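Q: Predict the assembly, please.
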Amino acid sequence: MAGLACADRLAEDGVAVRLFDKGRGPGGRMSTRRVETSAGTASFDHGAQYFTVRDPLFRDQVDAWAAAGVVVPWPEAGADAWIGNPAMNAPIRHMATAHQVDFQHHVHGLQRDSAGWWVRLDTGMEGPFDAAIVALPSEQAASILGLHDLAMARVAMTARSQPCWTAMIAFDEPVDLPVDHVSGGGILSWAARNSAKPGRDGPEAWVVQANGAWSAARLEESPHVIGPLLLDALGQMTGGAGLPPVAHLTAHRWRFAMTRGTDNGALWNDHIRLGACGDWLLGPRVELAWLSGRMLGARVAQDMTLPLAESG
Ligand SMILES: Cc1cc2nc3c(=O)[nH]c(=O)nc-3n(C[C@H](O)[C@H](O)[C@H](O)COP(=O)(O)OP(=O)(O)OC[C@H]3O[C@@H](n4cnc5c(N)ncnc54)[C@H](O)[C@@H]3O)c2cc1C
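A: Predicted assembly structure:
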């Protein structure tokens, strides 16, 4: 979200952008996973569950996404709760169509020489680029930034994240709960009937997320151990009614799920033209990731439209 929001803002000023993302497809922490199960193709928004809108600029963006059909309200979760349509990653997929994005490209580092910035990938170096922007969770950003700007890396190191173990569970029949989502309760921070969100189809599918403390204490545990524990925790919510037969169960470890955040907004070193954006520069919400990217894009566009000698 932050990287593409930054790219969108830069494109408004005519700055060409290239993005590299290690993911198989668009989403990051707004990803959706589709799984073939004995009950049909189940879909799970296993990261962010919904997002809210407070900033007027983001409100305009969400209105534009709604007009394009890639987000819809989810009134069940709150008066101002929005979700991607037909999956959480839909707005990211939509934004990515406007840019050159290379998925399945793991960035191992950045290098800088007299020609500019180079991106180190499994397949070799890509570049040179006039500027480089790091839009990763803070812990991953810190190691890439550290070689070039220690002050930026230090900010990234202060914005620690909490992990989140998430189970994706499909059932042969509906779970006997009178509601489609539950917040808190025992070891869980959240459980939602993903298949009941607007725009979804497929079999009964639940996303079950453990709270930060429980997830942190079991961070290195195997997903095969965690999955049944989260299934059990969901079962306890049915108050003895029990769960129907399970068609699919996997657990995903979000190592850097929810950032504590900082109040920097975005970071930009105009001498070496290196920047950073992401939720960790504001707070742990989709809207704040978008705002951070947008802020950085505006700042970088100012410098990129000047000849190098005048910048900084
Ligand atoms: C379980 C969970 C629940 C959440 N619930 C909510 C919620 O209900 N509401 C809400 O508003 N927010 C929620 N959030 C937070 C929200 O998802 C994030 O704040 C937001 O999506 C962060 O966007 P970002 O662009 O900063 O980072 P990310 O989405 O993490 O994007 C970073 C990108 O960098 C890529 N990447 C990482 N390392 C590399 C590398 N070395 N090379 C190349 N690419 C790399 C990743 O693939 C990813 O696409 C939740 C997050 C999680 C994990």
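The longest strand covers residues 246-259. Residues 161-259 form a domain with the Polyamine Oxidase; Chain A, domain 2 fold (CATH 3.90.660.10).
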